[in-house]
C-alpha cells in the first residue's frame, strides 16, 4: 500500500468529477456533473440516448475537452488550462499519467486490424509504459488468458467473433494496469448470443474489486454488479443511488419511466 499526501486527504476516492460541463457550440451536453467513485466501487451510468453518457466518459480521459470542471484521481487534480475547444491538459506528462490509469473500452472494440491479438494487447505496455518487451508480452498473455483468449494470441481481429474482439479490447485496457475502468456500452455492438461472454468478464472484474464506471443498457446486469447507479438526463444527474432505489423506487418520474421502458 502506498500512502501519499494526496491519498491521505482523499483516502477512498479513486475517481472524482466536480461540476463537469461540456458544450458543443450552443449545445450544453454536460451541465455540471459531480460524482466520486470510491476504490472498488462499480458505478453504472444509465440514461436515454443523447443524455451525455459517452461525452462524460470521453471528458474523463480527455478524448473530449471539458468546458469546465475538475477531474481528480486519487486526490490529485488534473491541471487544465483554457484551449480552443475547451479545457486541455496544462501538463502533458501529468495528462498522460492520468490517462494511463484509466482503461477505456468502447462499444466498437477499436482493435488495430493489422496486428495480432497479442500485439494489440502489448502495444500499450510496450510503447506507452515503455516496459521491456518480455515483460509486456508476459503481461499481455496473462490478461488474455484471464479473458479466455489464451488460445488466440496470434489471431487477427477479423478472425475473431465480436465477443472475442471485445474481450481482447478489455484485455488491452487491463494490460495497462489501470486504476479505473471505463466501459462505454461494451455489449451494444454485439449479437445477442455474444453479450453474455463479455458481461461475464466484466462481472469478474467487478467482483475483483476494480473501480469501474460502466455505461450500459443491460439493466439486469447493472442491477446485479453495481454498487451505485446514476441516471443521467440532459447532462445532469437526475437520480443516483443503490440499484434497488434507482430501479425499484426512484424519486424521479422520468427515471422511473426510463427504467420501465428498458426492462
Ligand atoms: P449518449 O452517450 O448518452 O447517447 P452522447 O454523449 O453521445 O450521449 O451525446 C450527447 C449529446 O451530445 C448528443 O446530443 C450528441 O449529438 C452531442 N454530441 C456528442 N458528441 C458531439 C460532437 N463531437 N459534436 C457535437 N455534438 C456532439
Ligand atoms: Mg453513448
From TrEMBL:
Gene3D superfamilies: P-loop containing nucleotide triphosphate hydrolases. Residues 15-259 form the ABC transporter domain. Keywords: ATP-binding, Cell membrane, Membrane, Nucleotide-binding, Transport. InterPro entries: AAA+_ATPase (IPR003593), ABC_ATPase_HisP-typ (IPR030679), ABC_transporter-like_ATP-bd (IPR003439), ABC_transporter-like_CS (IPR017871), MetN_ABC_transporter-like (IPR050086), P-loop_NTPase (IPR027417). Pfam families: ABC_tran (PF00005). It is found in: Cell membrane. The keyword Cell membrane applies. Belongs to the ABC transporter superfamily. The keyword rRNA-binding does not apply. This is ABC transporter ATP-binding protein. PANTHER family: AMINO ACID IMPORT ATP-BINDING PROTEIN, L-CYSTINE IMPORT ATP-BINDING PROTEIN TCYN. Its main location: membrane. One of its GO terms (molecular function) is ATP binding.
